Description:
Blueprint: E1 2-9, H1 13-25, E2 31-35, H2 47-51, H3 65-70, E3 73-77, E4 81-85, E5 90-93, E6 98-106, E7 111-112, E8 125-127, H4 131-143, E9 148-152, H5 156-167, E10 171-175, H6 188-200, E11 204-206, E12 211-216, E13 221-225, E14 230-233, E15 235-238, E16 242-243, H7 247-251, E17 256-257, E18 260-262, E19 274-276, E20 281-285, E21 290-292, H8 297-312, E22 324-329, E23 332-338, E24 347-351, E25 359-365, E26 368-375, H9 381-390, H10 398-401, E27 407-411, E28 420-424
Parallel strand pairs: 1-2, 1-6, 2-3, 6-19, 8-15, 9-10, 9-15, 10-11, 18-20
Antiparallel strand pairs: 4-5, 5-6, 7-16, 12-13, 13-14, 17-18, 20-21, 22-23, 23-26, 24-25, 25-26, 27-28
Helix pairs in contact: 1-8
Amino acid sequence: MQTAHYLILGGGIAGTTAAETIRKLDSTGTIMVIDSEGEPLYSRVLLPHFVKGQIPEEQVYLRQRSWYDEQKIGRIEKVRATSIDPVNRRVELNNNEVIEYNKLLISTGGVPNTWDIPGGSVPNAVPLWTLEDGRKMKYLLARGEEKHAVAVGGGFICTDLVPIFLAAGWKTTLVVREPHFFWGLLDEESSRIFETAMIDAGLTILYNEEVVAVSRETHTTSLQLLSGRVITADLIGLGIGVHADSSLFRSAGLNVKQGGVETNEYLETSMADIWAAGDTAVFFDVNAGIHHKVGNWTNSQEQGRTAGVNMVGKERQPYHLVTAYTVQLFGCSLSFVGDFELTPDIETVVVGDTAKKERGRLLLYKNRLVGATLCNLPQLRGPLTQLIQDHVDLLSLRATLEKGSYVCLLRTNPNTPASWRATNV
């Protein structure tokens, strides 16, 4: 049986950042990382650039194996945890090893949803989640003959898949189950601005459609759609979402909600000396005042740092970053700031000029900004982020915000969070 003072489940950006932070604060405590992939840390953000051939594979890596040795960070690769025993502080792995720990971080991230349809296991249907996925997609793009790609999904992953296929010169079709792209995250008007940019770039979009069966033939693959229509593809990019396997956490007695491990603002779980970070964590957001899960690179990195600080225990830091994610696609900019999911108690204020292909949606909870979606309004991202951080009551600004055109938000006194004014521009 091995022992580790700090045991980290997950070798991605959250887990690796936590390990690095711990080592800076504790030079002697043993650190062990359990990594299911067996790769040193690499950037998922750079995977599309690698597949397009814009960077070589070695530039995708953010750490070399030698770095782990230099930092005295142990690794067990190509294994995963099968059980967590918080009482005896033990984790069992699927290779039958058992590791005892003093402090545990769960940062296992997510896994792509299974394409569970008849014939869906065809070899040319590939997600873009791991480096191995990227290698496979790059290989298939290089050997394609007919060069027709189909991307399946209507969210973030497809904003990577579509540019990859079009940049390779492939005819590309996007199959979206919902009525518009980013259904549930964007209002229809914002989505149509984004849609126009994709169509102008050469994309064909099929809304309210779903692949229900796949059949592999000698030279191509046929996809049967819900409407009865059949389309063919030489490459299928799967952007049907990811999930965290919460069964492991639930069986350990941890509080589980929204498909992840519930934490407080310090990323502490319901069990003593167990933390969670990254895509696994459903954390209490001190800015929005709610629990939610935010799956992006910056969030995972900063949560890993915060968890590392709190695990060492010399100080206790809340996680307070206002998370943001920006997609640049075919000349269109789309930003998600803070908590951008609608719930019944959220009010929305629309800003921007749709005629100029600019539209934003501000999400308010009790007159306080908690999130925003911004289409071609990048200049508002910084001020809105600051408004969320300052917890400003927007009651006095709402009349200006609701006039229709986008606004200039100014913090008139840099040292006074409440000193905001809004003017139309």
